[in-house]
Amino acid sequence: MKIVVLGGDGFCGWPTSLHLSNLGHDVVIVDNLSRRNIDNELEVSPLTPISPMSVRLEAWKRVSGRDIRFVNIDIAENYHRLLTLIKEFKPECVVHFAEQRAAPYSMKSSWHKRYTVSNNLNATNNLLAAIVEAERIETHVIHLGTMGVYGYNDSGVQIPEGYLEVYVRTDDGDELKQEILYPANPGSIYHMTKTQDQLMFGFYNRNDKLRITDLHQGIVWGTQTAETAMDGDLINRFDYDGDYGTVLNRFLMQAAIDYPLTVHGTGGQSRAFIHIQDTVRCIQLAAENPPQTGERVRIINQMTEVYRVRDLAKVVSDLTGAEVHHVDNPRNEAPENELRVANDSLLRLGLEPITLKNGLLSEISDIAKRYSDRCNRSKIPCVSYWSKR
Amino acid sequence: MKIVVLGGDGFCGWPTSLHLSNLGHDVVIVDNLSRRNIDNELEVSPLTPISPMSVRLEAWKRVSGRDIRFVNIDIAENYHRLLTLIKEFKPECVVHFAEQRAAPYSMKSSWHKRYTVSNNLNATNNLLAAIVEAERIETHVIHLGTMGVYGYNDSGVQIPEGYLEVYVRTDDGDELKQEILYPANPGSIYHMTKTQDQLMFGFYNRNDKLRITDLHQGIVWGTQTAETAMDGDLINRFDYDGDYGTVLNRFLMQAAIDYPLTVHGTGGQSRAFIHIQDTVRCIQLAAENPPQTGERVRIINQMTEVYRVRDLAKVVSDLTGAEVHHVDNPRNEAPENELRVANDSLLRLGLEPITLKNGLLSEISDIAKRYSDRCNRSKIPCVSYWSKR
Question: Of B56, B45, B52, B50, whose CA–CA distance to B374 is shortest?
Answer without folding.
Answer: B45
